[in-house]
Amino acid sequence: MTPDQIALAVLGGLVVLVIVGALLFVRTGQKNTDAGSSTSAGALTSRGWSGPGGGMSNFIQPPAEWRGTTVQVCGLWPYSIGAGTPMVGVPLGRHIHTGATLCCDPISWFQRAKLISNPSLFVLGRPGLGKSTAVARMAIGLAGYGVQPLVLGDLRPDYVEVIRALGGQVITLGRGRGYLNVLDPGEAKEAAQRLVDAGFEKEAGEVLEDAHGRRLAMVSSLLTILRKSAPSDVEESIVDQALRYLDRHFEGIPVLGDLLRVVQEGPEELRQVAVDRGDFAEYQRITRGLEASLISLSRGGRLGEMFSKHTTNPMRLDRPVVYDISAIGEAEGDLRAATLLACWSNGFATVNIANVLADAELEPRRHYFVIMDELWRALRAGNGIVDRVDFLTRLNRQVGVGTAMISHTMADLSALPEEDRLKAKGFVERAGMVMCAGLPYTEMPELTTVIPFSEAEQELLTGWQDPPAWDAASGREVDPPGRGKFLVKVGTRPGIPVEVRLTEAERSIRDTNQRWYEQSRTGRRALRAVEELVEEHEERVS
User: Would you state the pLDDT for residue 516?
Assistant: First the structure.
């Protein structure tokens, strides 16, 4: 064969091999397709597809497991944010990290959500970070739920415009501004008559006795503040009998002047408890100190005449109320202490009457939200305030009252006298929930002895207390980094960081810096004088 024939034969053999290989490849692919069709006809199980070619496994090897602390494996833990925020109560703000809405107030969390065991709130934080504003939002929201806000002694004032916007009652007290008669039984007589007419004679007698005890306690408190010492047992007995004598023989509502007159006249009931042995001169000697104190209370003196005249604006049962006592300066500590005690006495007497009428189904059930802002001022005002707050924090569940106490730091409570210091710290311990704004580093050791805070939570709080930065473009300070930011703590649970942002309606009634918006005129004149001196100096130099 020639070389050309041999090459042609080899080429033909290669062509045959290619054709045979292609036929074999196509046939093999068809078999695989048929096998896949049989696999797809099988059932899908937890271990794979059943049937031939499905890849089902008869044994699953368990994954390897390791154990570590939350500090070591915190980045691997899938639930790094935690559960959602509660949605029961007044909308307070948004979660700082997740943006979720937080609904929060002590009454809703106690009554409906069952998240706390005591309807009370304690707020701590440095000045200017929005503590009063956050509590005012709770008061506004609770008013929408039917809860009546009560501010029994607004010292700055912060809540007058809020209560007025809610259609509430603003009671102004101060020298020449308003009077509060401590012998006024309020609505006790009217409520007692309604109870008698409805067949509740026992409850009516209890209301009248409570009113009598409140008036006796208030007169004793005024005498204590005035004298700097408590009245004697004989003097308290004389005041007790004098009040009962007035209830029996006086027409209308008595005042301190009427009480003084009864003590001076010395009827038989008073002389018996004075044990004068039938000698009126001895009775006058025994009551001389009491008479002098009552003269001071009823005719002027260190406490003025604010408690010696008829009440100018009686407290109402059916609406929010604020006692505005901001006109009483800090220099008049005794008058401020006496006024706070009188406001507390009158306010809780009204709450007690409302509860009794509601129990008898003569009035609708009302709950109250008592706000005690600037608590440190109130606690330092005088004897008796700490004990009254202590009583409220222990029994607010029984009297249907939720409370919000606001102060700056734990150091404010530690500055109280020794006998009141532990009681005041108990306010924080017994609070159902605690809200903290920015706090200094020095506050953390004492705060963590009362409420457990993690290191991350402590760093968050101390970061919020930093001062504001300076904006060079506008020439003004920007808002502090912690303004409107709070950490909500309930027991040992992790805190919920939340940011409160005001609506336009709230901005118009909630601003404690209003007096700083207008430039001081004296400052303007001084600035103009400095500018004139600078211009004169420049002219001389030139």
Answer: 53
Domain boundaries, the chain: 103-173+315-509
d(CA 379, CA 416): 8
CB 462 within 8 A of CB 440: yes
pLDDT (tens digit per residue) in 278-290: 899 999 999 999 9
Instruction: Tokens for 19, please give them.
Output: 């054709």
Higher-confidence residue of 532 and 186: namely 186
- The answer to whether the CB of 160 falls within 8 A of the CB of 136 is no
- Percent of the chain exceeding pLDDT 70 equals 84
Which residue, among 289, 303, 304, 314, has the nearest Cα to 381 in the 3D structure?
303
Residue 445 CB partners (closer than 8 Å, separation 6+): none
pLDDT at 41 over 70: no
Q: What is the pLDDT of residue 172?
A: 94
Q: What is the pLDDT of residue 24?
A: 66
Burial class (CB in 10 A: 0-12, 13-18, 19+), 389: buried
Of 455, 451, 457, nearest in space to 431 by CA? 451
3-state helix, strand, coil in the chain (%, to 5): 50, 10, 40
Give the closest residue to 137 by CA, choosing from 464, 393, 509.
Answer: 509
As to burial, measured by CB atoms within 10 angstroms (0-12 exposed, 13-18 middle, 19+ buried), residue 426 is: middle
pTM, to two decimals: 0.74
Phi, psi (degrees; rounded to nearest 5) at 536: -65, -40
- Read off the tokens for 375: 């608590």
In degrees and rounded to multiples of 5, residue 148 shows phi and psi of -95, 115
Q: CA–CA separation, 72 vs 55, rounded Å?
A: 38
Phi-psi category of residue 304: left, alpha or beta, with phi > 0 → left and psi -120 to 50 → alpha: left
Instruction: List pLDDT tens digits, range 483-540.
Output: 999 999 998 888 999 999 988 888 877 665 555 555 555 556 666 766 777 777 677 7
Which region holds residue 85: left if phi is over 0, alpha if psi is between -120 and 50, else beta? beta
3-class DSSP assignment, residue 323:
strand
CATH code for residues 103-173+315-509: 3.40.50.300
Residue 263 has pLDDT above 70, yes or no: yes
Helix/strand/coil for 396:
coil
Tell me the C-alpha distance between 149 and 130, whole Å.
19
CB of 460 closer than 8 Å to CB of 150 = no
Across residues 28-52, what is the average pLDDT? Answer: 61
Which tokens sit at 439?
Answer: 């706090």
CA–CA gap between residue 494 and residue 487 (Å, rounded): 9
Q: What is the DSSP letter of 178?
A: B
